[in-house]
Amino acid sequence: MWFGLSGSDANDCIAKMVPLATKRNRIISYFGAYHGQTMGSLSMSGHTAQAKFVGSGNVVKIPNPYCYRCAFNKNREDCKLDCLQFLEEHVFKTVCPPEDTAVIIVEAMQCDGGDVVPPAEYMEELEKICKKYGILLACDEVKIGIGRTGKLFGFEHFNLTPDAVVFGKPIASGMPLSGVVARKEVLDAGIATHLFTTAGCPVSTAAANATLDVILNEGLIQNALEMGEYIKSGLNELMDRYELIGDIRGKGLLIGAELVRCRDTKEPADKETAKIVYRAFQKGLILFYVGINSNVLEFTPPLTMNRKDADRGLQILDESISDVLKGKVSDEEMSRYAGW
Fold first, then answer.
1. pLDDT tens digits for 76-120?
2. How far apart are CA 285 and CA 246, in angstroms?
3. How far is 13 from 2, CA to CA, in rounded Å?
4. Distance (Å, rounded) from C-alpha 96 to C-alpha 87?
5. What is the DSSP string of 131-149?
6. Range of 105's domain?
7. pLDDT per position as a tens digit, 29-46
8. Are both 192 and 268 inside the same structural domain?
9. Total domain count for the chain?
């Protein structure tokens, strides 16, 4: 067990300690991934937010299993996991030899990349590939862990056992705390190789214990599961009425609604997405938009969410979409707030 202060330094732990422990130099991560802002974590990230920075040269990025926008132009129905074939048949054979690959780091559900839920069989096959070549598998649970998806950790939705799990954000209810649970040989690979003065301080760990007590003892994980289905049902009703909504996806209270100008071409409706978020804010609903095309409305409400608040939020969203489609939100009005 290792403690830090944020998701960034926790993912940096993976970037530093796994190559040290395995005596392998290379790391594989994903297009669209967001692992943090420090050098190691941003190097493993594949998000546009970090595209202006040149990270470490030992990280190779591969396509995320983003079925709505498949990098190999396949439909979900006829997909044969070409993205994993690409890993073995091209990446391993050219730029990233498996015998020199220390770890593959993956988000069980990629959040800032667009709230993308991978096919269950993808995660299972990925673990098999890791075992085949002796590569460790790390799951970044910083944003989705601690109950949000309807499981304590997102990877529990899939049949896999990671070698390392990274957590942060919600664990201490706003107090600075993150952590890595990993194999002993990884975290004990060096002395004083990744430590911080106030990491794991008593105040933050006490807050984490209290947070876990509430989440586990007050049924919030089950509530996340049930309320997630309720909210997705409401979003699907909006999808039936608005062609702008191209896809609804997620698990528990991690939900994404991808907005497109045309469902056939899937042209990203990035400007409309920003306007909807801004209009919703004006009406009293705080939303966020994510995705490599800035066109996915993200719904990550508190785990204490109830039906009354969900209904009110869906009503405001309905009104906001309608206002934007009617031209009631100008480009100039929201220009200061767009940009993710």
1. 778 889 999 999 999 999 999 999 999 999 999 999 999 999 999
2. 21
3. 9
4. 9
5. HHHT-EEEEE-TTTTTTTT
6. 2-217
7. 999 999 999 999 999 999
8. no
9. 2
Residue-wise over 156-179: b if at least 16 C-beta within 10 A, else e? bbbebebbbbbbbbbbbbebbbbb
Token code pair at residue 279: 């209009």
Query: Do residues 6 and 76 both lie within one domain?
Result: yes
pLDDT at position 338 is: 64
CATH at 277: 3.90.1150.10
d(CA 294, CA 273) in angstroms, rounded, equals 7
Residue type, 316: I
Question: How confident is the model over 203-235, as pLDDT tens digits?
Answer: 999 999 999 999 999 999 999 999 999 999 999
CA distance 166 to 154: 11
Task: Give the percent of the chain with pLDDT over 70.
Answer: 99
Identify the three-state secondary structure at position 163.
coil
The 10 Å Cβ neighbour count of residue 45 is 30
Q: What angle do CA 199, 204, 209 make, to 5 degrees?
A: 125
Are residues 277 and 213 part of one domain? no
Instruction: Tell me the C-alpha distance between 26 and 96, whole Å.
Output: 7
> Buried b / exposed e across 69-99, counting CB within 10 Å, b at 16+?
bbeeeeeeeebebbbbeebeeebbeeebebe
- Beta bridge pairs of residue 249: 256
Catalytic residue list: 34
Average pLDDT of span 134-140? 98
Given 217, 249, 265, the domain boundary residue is 217
C-alpha angle 302/143/4, rounded to 5°?
Answer: 115
Question: Do both 283 and 303 map to the same domain?
Answer: yes
Residues 284 and 225 in one domain: yes
pLDDT of residue 253: 98
pLDDT at 48 over 90: no
Q: Same domain for 275 and 147? A: no
Residues 7/31, Cβ–Cβ less than 8 Å: no
pLDDT of residue 76: 78
User: Are residues 262 and 181 located together in one domain of the fold?
Assistant: no
Domain end marker among 196, 217, 238: 217
